[in-house]
Design the sequence.
């Protein structure tokens, strides 16, 4: 009569141990704050997201505007990024149209943003900068409204948030595709060049 009771206790203890192992915590470490540490890390990351500065689409802030866009054919497929840097007086001072290899469309959008933030770092120190994107998914992931479900985007998302919170003079703005048309053309041109190269190589 006693033996089955002991066996059931062993089974129960084993089940608990398995649950801890699957969660990435040992039984002892869970008791000493493993889960609390995870919650703290999540809270710490959320505070970073909360520090990302955004501005409304129709706001007219003085300063430079950097327009970014990414494009991928076949998703995933040959991809490219486009960036335009616009002076406060409206003059375009630089453009980037570059193939980035095989990516999904969302990966290309993030890589365009990262390149745009690098372009922002080249501007005169203290310049006010607004970075414009027409990717609603990326914008809302960076502002914390959407979760980053795709594992392939998590590292890109972390890099973008890190760069945005480092620079108090840079704000992010979601714009219409119509407003971003010229940058979209640069991105599609780059992805098209890569697609043609791949096709020529296959031939």
Sequence:
């Amino acid at each position: 009569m006693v033996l089955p009771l002991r066996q059931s206790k062993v089974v129960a203890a084993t089940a608990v141990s398995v649950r801890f192992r699957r969660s990435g915590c040992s039984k002892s470490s869970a008791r000493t704050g493993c889960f609390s540490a995870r919650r703290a890390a999540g809270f710490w990351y959320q505070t970073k997201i909360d520090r990302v500065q955004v501005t409304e689409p129709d706001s007219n802030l003085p300063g430079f505007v950097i327009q970014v866009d990414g494009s991928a054919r076949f998703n995933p497929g040959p991809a490219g990024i486009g960036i335009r840097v616009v002076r406060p007086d409206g003059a375009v001072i630089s453009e980037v149209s570059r193939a980035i290899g095989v990516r999904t469309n969302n990966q290309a959008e993030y890589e365009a943003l990262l390149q745009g933030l690098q372009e922002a770092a080249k501007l005169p120190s203290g310049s006010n900068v607004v970075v414009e994107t027409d990717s609603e998914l990326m914008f809302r992931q960076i502002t914390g409204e959407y979760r980053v479900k795709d594992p392939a985007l998590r590292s890109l998302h972390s890099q973008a948030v890190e760069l945005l919170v480092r620079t108090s003079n840079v704000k992010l703005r979601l714009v219409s595709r119509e407003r971003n048309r010229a940058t979209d053309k640069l991105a599609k041109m780059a992805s098209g060049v890569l697609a043609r190269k791949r096709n020529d190589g296959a031939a």
